[in-house]
Amino acid sequence: MKMTNSGFLKCLIGYCFILLHFEVEAQNQGFEQLNSRRSGVSFKNQLSENANNNILRYEYFYNGAGVAVGDLDNDGLDDIFFTGNMVSNKVYKNLGEFKFEDKTKSAGVAGKESWTTGVSMADVNGDGWLDIYVSYSGKGNTESRRNELWINQKNFIFTDQAREFRLDDASNSTQGLFFDFDRDGDLDLFLLNHHIQVISEIEFAKARQVRHPEAGDKLYRNDGGKFTDISDQAGIKGYSLGFGLGVVASDINQDGWVDLLVSNDYIEPDYLYINNGDGTFTDRLSSKFQHISHFSMGADIADINNDGLPDIYTLDMLPEDNQRQKLLYGPENYEQYALMIQRGFYHQQMRNMLQLNQGDELFSEIGQLAGISNTDWSWSALFFDATNDGFKDLLVTNGYYRDYTNRDFLKYKGDYYFKQAVAGEKADTLQLVTTMTSTPVHNYLFENKGDLTFQDRSMDWGFGEKNFSSGAAYADLDNDGDLDLVINHLNEIAGIYRNNSSKKNFLKISLAGSQANTKGIGSKVMLTSDGKTQTLEQQPVRGFQSSVSPILHFGLGESSQIDSIQIVWPNGQSELLTNIAANQTLEINQLSAAKSSPESKSAASPLLSKSSNPTPFTSKAAGFNDFKRQPLMLTMPSYVSPILAQGDLNNDGNSEVFFGGTKGQAAEIWTWQSGLWSPYSGFRSSPEFTDAVAIFEDFNGDGAVDLFVGSGGFQDYIGSDESLEDRIYLNDGNGKLIKSLTFPSYKFSTGTAVALDANGDGFLDLFVGAKLIPGKYPIIPQSKLLINDGKGNFSDQTAAFLPKEGKLGMVTASVGMDLNSDGVQDLVLAGEFMNLTFLVNSGKSHFEDQSSTYLQESLSGWWGSLSKADMDGDGDFDLIAGNFGTNSQLEASDEKLIRLYAADFDENGSIDPILECFIGDKAYPYPSRDELLDQMVSMRSRFTDYASYSKATVNELFSDKELESAQVLEINTMESFYLENQGGKFIPKMLPKLAQSFPIRAILPTDLNGDGSLDLILGGNENFTRIRIGMIDAGLGLVLLGDGKGNFKPLSPSESGLAIKGDIKAILELNTEGVKQILFGIHQQAIETYQLK
Amino acid sequence: MKKQYSISFLILAFFLATGSAFKAKKPVNWPKTYAEQLFHITEVMVTDVASPPVAARIYAYATLASYLTMREQGAEFKHQPLLDASYLTDLKLELPSDQLQSPEFAGILAMLKVGEAIMPSGYLLREKQEKWINESLKAKTISKKELGNHVAFANDLTKQVMAIAKKDGYLQLSTFTRYTPKQDPGFWYPTPPAYMAAVEPEWKTIRPFFIQNLSEFEPKPMATFDLEKGSSFEKQLMEVYEVTNKLSAEEKLIANFWDCNPFKVEFSGHMAMGVKKISPGGHWMGIAGIAAVKEALSFAETAYVHALVGLTLHDAFTSCWKAKYETDRIRPETVINQTFDPTWKPLLQTPPFPEYTSGHSVISRASAVVLTGYFGDNFEFIDTSELFFGLPARPFNSFLSASEEAAVSRLYGGIHFRDSIENGLSQGEKIGEMIWRKVRK
């Protein structure tokens, strides 16, 4: 085809247009690192490693430096200040359009030659011009460590007036946080410090009695421009144990007084200083957080789910990928962990922690559910709305210059000294250091999905590059309505990242405080748009050694209408603004605020209230560490008590409640009558048993209720232990329960049981679900079908009735229901590493596995509970299945199966259970090298170092033949489900995200709000796990309100009235005298009773 | 006439020369060579951080291999066949009966091969085996032609020795419930700085060679835990505290000389480093080697005496470890820190296992007794085992006095009570005597 010139040109233009469009499209997401020559920012935090300056001489040599952003010359553009550990600090004037000018020399702020750490910007002298506070540390002399306070002289000139202000503190400082803690209108200073020598064990006790002058954090009160150290009287701890690396201020308990989170490295727990409003603070961490990160580095506090409550996030050093994890993990030491707790160091786990604020000073840690728990050795965390959709996204910077904790290196180091000694050569420590491997890692950018989870966008949104990063800050550097990023890298030019996301609506707010606190530090701003409210707190010091822009930024998404903005100033004054246009920078002056206090939300009346009656029963701890017996399990099967069941034993109309015991504590029965508990004398059990399930039924048809108890547990029961036998207690007619001696004697750890008429003779038979054999986890034992002769004598007819010879799985939960509406009870079963199994009673002679008929796609999980209820009021039973949840390191899907292989692989007489799970895109053995080698001698010569094991898959551990002859169990989902019965087919629907935050072990369907639709009360948690898994304790007793259409709404603790910490094992409803009582059986705690109002 | 004689002489000289060229090997200092090669096994043990009882077991099987080589090759020994008094008295090995050109060569090779098979990082010895083969070829200890059957012999023997090792209970150790320290007063608890888990709590289930009934070699009862002033325990506790608070330079040297801690841990921030040393058993294997060199023993006797000490060490450790975990006694450091001085630290790092009886006391005495039996009492020697670690060579007048110093060194080191070392010495004495009585000529 011949083309004319103009035709060709049009094509060309069209082609370019298309190209340009695609280019723009491709760049419509994420961040782009700017070329330093074009931006003018050439600052590089370069370290010089030599004999005097290295990681062995100075602990914190690789920690990196900081960055502060703020408008230093009041020209409407945020400028940048970088600290350099060993190089000069630099300040850059923002010229607009991402061009910056190095003004360090004329500003005079290059700083000292000594080790520089953090920086923050604040208007310290209240003259409307931002000042700069620079922190120093290191091993030099006192003078070298004095912090600098650069007072803004305008025109980019600064003078160090730290001495005049009495802020030339010579502590080993990490960061200075300016805030108004006493609400007197001026900025005070919290100085975060760290020790430069690791404290040895022996000195711990002494260390906690004495303030260390250079290591302890300090609080300075601003007294008219002169700062006074009031640390001791304010209750600020100053131990030498403090290795403060992160500090964030926030009004955590929302009482109008700003509080502080201090994150501490090493063994010292983090501090949660609650402001008492009287000039003092009290550390209340242990009453709010149930576990915390171990080596806490940076931190941030923000409302991540827009419920108005600030959530808290601290960083640690757990890698995302298998290889780095396996190079890092050493042996788990339970005694050392217990010692740590005993000495008051609290529960600490090595991973990032997201403490979701549930109100009423209750927090649930959901970092793993959120997907932000593993980001390698992390420094700065910043929640900020990167996409302008109204939800705060997350930046995490990370990287540690040398693989200091690489276990092979540690081992090699010891060898090195020995070999040098043998060779008669001196050991060269510096040489050793430089032989350590160096592994750069990419920073993380997570997108907040608005449902408590974050999606990793690092690769797609411009953070795929591998480097070492530390301090970071966000600001709208080019004033185009979205937040850009500045990141200080180690040994590399600092990065300026332009936000390229597609334009959405926004609002920026510049606060003008009325007194010396000119930027309104401590103010809270609530913006409502499209009926949804976002909250921001004006606290620029966040992340690590850095401070962010003092301009507040709200993303509005598609909505260009702002309903209202409420601002609460630090002194409590509030103002409500309406008719605000989007897409501008709004300046709000405190002077215009009314003297009123903000309207307090009316406290909702909770549905349930806790009974003050004395508890009838306190569960005793199982008291065993099951990992000593079978070291490769993940959770402890001994911990099943206390179970609950109810029946009327003496036909007097009052409920008798069975409280299950554990080995060392006998079960008890109590009567509930007229609001009081009294012990029931007609029952005696023995402390040899661990009660796993109890069923009150009239088994011998004499009109009196009998009792079946299944014996479970693990402890030190051996396979032939009589304490594993299940029991039937027959009612003598007068309410006394007598143990039947004819009950079949089978020995396994019982998981569950159901009473149902299996052979259609009108008498209740028993299905008993076997869970495991103590010492032989996870080998599947034989579950039982016991036929009742009508007189309470049971015979084992498993072979006839149950498929697979009864080896159905590690059964933990069961319900009887008529699945096919043939008038005969069928069975639905669930267990660990087991499919939801539907067994249909066929001809009253046997059960057939018809799971695929009732559930289209198999759901194999780590099930712990099962319940049936007509949730949608359509006359048939729906199911609720409680699983392990997604708040752990383990994830499962059809593409990412979790597998459990079990066999005596090394033929030494013990079962070796080997778990395999996906980490990233590949499946790996779960045990660490130390765990595997401890269990299997044969592996010791196969994996002589951590490196070789770190790449191994299960196929490198075992031959195909070995794997084929092993018992293999699989999991394809860890989620808990609601399964709606739709005409004989169960349609699974995941329960809300919050219900996935803990393993569900107890389910009670009941109508709590009186709307005619059943709601759900879910209990669980798993506090008895291996150290690496850590306590899963996010559940507080969760109420889900059902709407009768299969939708569930989670209630907060203040709405439900439930705030139960601990492992809930059972929930029982008692309806007596017209009052609904809900009993909670919690391991190692007293039974709690709640009343429906 | 003269010409004929000179030609004859030449021919004779030629024959003599070539004859001797075939027969002239370089003379080998067998005890020295043996000790050097054994040290390679020690090096791998150090890399693997083998615990003291595990190290002794390795020495036992490795040295057993070299002894069995000589036994099977018909060597004659000064004293009784080593295994006659053991549970392996009926052991029949299936090996080619041909006389090897150099049984010594094969003995060392077998020792290295057992080391390779029995240690996790044993693969590191492959290089040493190659080196040994090459050195021996060069020194004409072994000819290329004969190398093959020596290697085959060593492989065969190794397999059979490992078959014995497989049945001594070691593989079953991981099937036991792991140890949980009791929280009650007087019982052992992990010690700082690393709070390592207790090492080998079930070692008593490993089969000893000579001891038929471990309960016959239990130490005398220890002083019961009692903090009342004037009680035996309290007096001993104060003795540890007072002695360690005023150690002389010589006493400090003695403590360090006998430290022998394979796991010492030092911390540097997030980094925990293991500073490695040879084990107590390794120290006494070294002494056996020094004595063998001094007496210029033949290879057969060198192998004998090393195996004697190796097997003795194994039995002694087994007996000691049984006592440790049955008494489960607390360490001085724990009591002192808990009761009256929270900042006190012993000179040595407390090793991770219970206190009673002192390992070094038991095994040093047992080794010293059998060595005294073999070499005689008042055998002076210079102990160079710790030269590597910056400690000077130390002269001793006798094995027994060395063992006494090893025992008391634990008090100086602040890691043992007096009764533990005294009763440990008696425990070791009894074991050593029983063994020597059975093997002596």
Notable features of this structure?
heterodimer; A: about 1100 residues; mainly beta; five-stranded antiparallel sheet; four-stranded antiparallel sheet; about 10% helix; globular; B: about 450 residues; mainly alpha; two-stranded antiparallel sheet; about 55% helix
Task: Please provide a written account of the structure.
The complex is a heterodimer of chains A (1093) and B (441). Chain A is mainly beta and 1093 residues long. Helices cover 11% and strands 34% of the residues of chain A. Chain A is globular and about 100 Å long. Residues 21-27 of chain A have low confidence and may be disordered. Chain B is mainly α. Helices cover 55% and strands 3% of the residues of chain B. In chain B, the strands form two sheets. Chain B has a two-stranded antiparallel ribbon with strand order 1-2. Chain B has a two-stranded antiparallel ribbon with strand order 3-4. The radius of gyration of chain B is 24 Å and the shape is elongated. Residues 17-23 of chain B have low confidence and may be disordered.
